[in-house]
Amino acid sequence: RSPAKMSVVAGKPNQHIPLDEAGASDVAALRQSTQTPKSKYPFPQTSSQEYGWDIEKEDLINVKKSAFSQPRKNSEVTSYMEAAWRQKEQAKMGGNEG
């Protein structure tokens, strides 16, 4: 395409160009560029897109909760050491409460 026939997407700030003049294909291309790959294409386009292609947003929330949220578990040893460290820190601060 020659530069004389190309449509301008971003014009001057004080100039208003109606959508009919900008070209329907350009506007459609801009709208499609902001969509996610899953809404643009029926199938993954790259091997990287194959991972998680069928996962919905709700599934991601459940995975984050179960896989990455591990509550803290104390055993006899860790409970003892936690109390020992707490006493050591209190003694260091001068507040011998325990």
Strand content: under 5%
**Terminal Cα separation, in Å?**
82 Å
Instruction: Give the ordered list of helices and strands.
Output: HHHHHH
Low-pLDDT stretches are none
The percent of residues in helical segments reads 40-55%
Averaged pLDDT: 75
Radius of gyration from CA coordinates: 30 Å
Query: What spatial form do the alpha-carbon principal axes imply?
Result: elongated
Largest sheet: none
Instruction: Give the strand tally.
Output: 0
What's the total helix number? 6
Structural class by secondary-structure content: mainly alpha
Task: Report on this structure.
The chain is mainly alpha-helical and 98 residues long. The mean pLDDT is 75. The longest helix has 18 residues. It is built from six helices and no strands.
Keywords:
mainly alpha; 53% helix
Sequence-ordered SSE layout with sheet pairings:
Layout (H helix, E strand, L loop, with lengths): L18 H4 L1 H10 L3 H4 L6 H4 L6 H12 L7 H18 L5
How is this structure best summarized?
This protein has six helices and no strands. With about 100 residues, it is mainly α.
